[in-house]
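Provenance and format

Records in this collection were gathered into a single text stream. Each protein contributes a sequence line and a token line. The two records reproduced below are adjacent in the stream.
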Amino acid sequence: MSAYTLAWYLGAFALALGSLIVVHELGHFLVARWCGVKVLRFSVGFGRTLWMRKWGVDRTEWAISAFPLGGYVKMLDEREGDVAPEEVHRAFNRQSVGKRMLIVAAGPLSNLLLAVLLYWVMFVQGVQEVRPLLEQPVAGSPAAQAGIHAGELVRSVDGNPVLTWNQLRLKLINRALDASVVALELQAADGALLERQLDLSRIAATEVDENLMSRIGLALQRPRWPALVGAVAAGSPAQQAGLLPEDKILEIAGTPIAFWDEVTAVIRARPGQRLPLKFLRAGEARQVEITPEVIAEQGGSIGRIGVSVRAPEGQSPLLVEVRYGPLEAAGNALTQTWDTTRLTLVMMGRMVTGDISWRNLSGPVAIADYAGQSARMGLTSYLRFLALISISLGVLNLLPVPVLDGGHLMYYLLEFFRGRPVSDEALELGQRIGLGLLGLLMAVALYNDLNRLISG
């Protein structure tokens, strides 16, 4: 990976992480202020303070700290120091249980609201996505047994309309986790509407991963377009090699190229290998060398050079622009956020019970990789990535684990029903257990990241 690419990935990761942390802590801060609690410090990061300024009526300390994976809002609290008599009413511990729960829940809920906002922006401005136009299913697969054929377009899943391949994939993942039979409405090439029953009961929970669609037997139909370069991603191997839009690829690593799907097949099969590439520009044949990036996939890796195809005019049957009015976009943004939140919760639960492998857990290295890839693919891809990570952060923080927001909510619920706070001894024990669980979680995630790098 070049220095430029590394800087791009780190920059995209820092922007994503920083913005999500700020939104999360801002939720705590704003609701605390609304409830009358005095905020002493707003910090992005933990540990040694790198930068700090005091601002506002309460002279709140706004800080950036050395360890960036998180942040905190420190509020006035009698349990953490002396409080002046005239400010006792503004201490966090003096607030009602309801107010304390509201302040704690505001952080994760802010992340979920951010996801809704990001999806709303995408839906209002319009998103170019791939339609669920299907290739011929693999023989013996659930899709083949359901009677699905090449050229059929998926219109709905269990009566819920789908417009894009991503929408279809999300709905089928949710249905596969329930091991259910799915009703698909399809449109044949001649316009006829068809009903098909797709049996997902044979899909084990451990097989619900990024390769699910291929296990079901579903794949996108790929038209045989000429091997013309459409767009070149910034900092990609293609840009570094000097490829430009409108270049026609003739040969890669000695393999003659006529159509774009051949470009994809050759590049995917040779991650990290230095390849000679011949192309035609303005009638002149040229040759460069290009090294596809190594992109980790479940069970292996693929190559990618950062180019897209130039679709012939009027021949883009796979693409559809998803655009809604402001009100309709809000409804679809809420639905998308809810479906993704539900899927995240179910996947986490299945990991705890052992139904899904912990290898699906990603750490900071993988997230940085996804951040860089999505940023290079364009603003829409990056916003979608931010929405997904924001949902994951919100859901994670709502888990009933001590030291997380969900753990504090659990304590306050106990206080509400018992009529008195949880004892200091129980709080201290919970903190130790919570820190241990978080440490274990981070260790597993980091191990998965390193394992993907080594195997890739």
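Adjacent record:
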Amino acid sequence: MDFDFPLRKIIHVDMDAFYASVEQHDNPDLKGKPIAVGGSSKRGVVSAASYEARKFGVRSAMSGVMARKNCPYLIFVKPRYDRYKEISHQVRKVFFEYTDLVEPLSLDEAYLDVTENKKGNPSATLIAQEIRNKILEVTGLTASAGISINKFIAKVASDYNKPNGQKTVNPEEVIEFLEQLDIRKFYGVGKVTAEKMYQLGIFTGKDLKTKSLEYLDENFGKSGKYYYKVVRGIHLSEVKPERIPKSVGAERTFSENLSSEIFMLEKLENIADELERRLKKSKIAGKTITLKIKYSDFTLQTRSKTLPFYISDKALIIETAKELLFQSPMQNSVRLLGISLANLNTEKKENTAQEEIDSVSVQLKFDF
């Protein structure tokens, strides 16, 4: 079918169980075994789980205790972030062999725009296959990919044939693909939103498509317009090689709960040290400081203050963080503290013009 907006050839590449796969690759004794990267202690959290561990319900962000309960034979491995960054750098070098339009989302995934590419290959599907083969050759690790006309569909598609697979959604297949899609698979629909949609009788893309823009705005606020558009294949966001951070932060989870502001001050000093290091490394400053407090009952509280000038110096960061700390009494003992800086000097003025779906009329015949 024809679309009244620019069609691109977008690939979303996602490494398979990245941290866990790196550990299994570097230590052959771990291959084929259920492993979790992270801590197994009372405070430990799973950063990544191998596919063998996932069969037992072990997932990232799960507590180490729960993970062990789900899988008694689970092997915990300490994370090696320097090693993951090293591999990630190798993977990105492969991406840049094909296009300069690479938008990393994290160490293990990225969008690539190959509408025009360095290989002169008109088939995004074949390019994705080449990239995955090259990644395997260079790193010994597998990756999955999704290929389609925009970032949204490509990201959804990359999950379809995991691990070590890929899926292409051609232009003429987009609408049917989205209509049949389980609402939980829509990127941007979290667990809470999915439950709300279920209550409203929205289970698939086809159900979502029957709802008017006004209805979605009323029930989902600002996200309503996003849902209205993506289910119709409309997602005009370009692949942006330079992702500008909205905030920079640092946080710590403690082995023992902190029961007094006096103990918290020492921890905040260390966190501010780390935040200052990150800011100066990136040559970033900001105006809005946010103090994050997670209590022992997992209640989360944030307190923010915006200054009239940009800062990146630890002394000013800690001074404001202390002010925020004593803004109100503690509700409980504390398990996590964090400080972040937003309203950064790197932010550019957003183009406030609305992206109207009839603003551009470009119809291309694509060989996917």
